[in-house]
Amino acid sequence: MSTQPKPDYVDDELSEQAVHDYLAAHPDFFEHNAKLLGSLNLPHGGSGAVSLVERQVSVLRQKDMKLERQLKELIEVARANDVLSAKIHELTIQLLTNTSLQTTISALEEAMRSGFGADQAVLVIFGDPEAFDDIDTSRFFRVVMKKDPSLGAFETFLNGNGARCGRIRDSQREFLFRDDAEDIGSAALVPLGKGSEIGFLAVGSVDTDHFHPGMSIDFLTRLGDLIAGAVRRY
């Protein structure tokens, strides 16, 4: 009579996780088991069932639609960049033909208003206002001493290293846009020269989301460099 203990019963049933892990490790499993693939059905929105192949086709179609939307967005961005590049190129040519600071400022003002479609724009130049008596100081052109107390509201920007986009403080809006300050929802502040050495350009929009912190500043940086180079000529 045997006295050896009987082995414990082992449950050979596979868990869902085990099946999941196996299929994940063997993505070609169904290539060798095509009949099984065709016989599998999956619930579909609570009514009826679809084969696994149909479900895969549906998933791939959804991914394709998502990629198509992303491609359209990239194309739109590329087209917008082409338009901006053309406008900056056109402005560059105009600035090269100018022979005085007055005509340069006039060309910049016109470009901001009609070329770039800015709701409001202000060019702030650091210097002695009396040294610019011969320049027609319109709403677009402003000359202030760099140590002017009114620039205290821009201290963080002026000490920074790049353009700033988004909503700006009331004190900044009032200094820049004066009577139109309440109409401005967002703005871009663009340094002219390293550390805003020459001054800065402010572009305002009535749209609160037109300028935002997450937007690309590449073209704004190029515009700032272009303006700084044009102003330095005089």
Concise overview:
This protein has 234 residues and is of the alpha+beta class.
Average pLDDT figure: 85
Report the span from N to C terminus. 114 Å
SS elements, strand count: 7
Alpha-beta content class: alpha+beta
Strand order of the largest sheet: 4-3-7-6-5
Poorly predicted ranges? none
Report the total helices: 7
**SSE order, as H and E?**
HHEEHHEEHEHEEH
Largest sheet: 5 strands, mixed
Alpha-carbon Rg, integer:
32 Å
Principal-axes geometry comes out as elongated
Give the % helix: 40-55%
Can you walk me through this structure?
The chain is of the alpha+beta class and 234 residues long. It has helices at residues 16-25, 34-39, 52-97, 101-115, 155-158, 170-177, 218-232, and strands at 41-43, 49-51, 120-126, 141-144, 164-166, 186-192, 199-205. The chain has seven helices and seven strands. Strands 4-3-7-6-5 form a five-stranded mixed beta sheet, covered by helices on one side. The protein has a two-stranded antiparallel sheet with strand order 1-2. Helix 3 (52-97) runs antiparallel to helix 4 and helix 3 (52-97) runs parallel beside helix 7 (218-232). The model has no long low-confidence stretch (mean pLDDT 85).
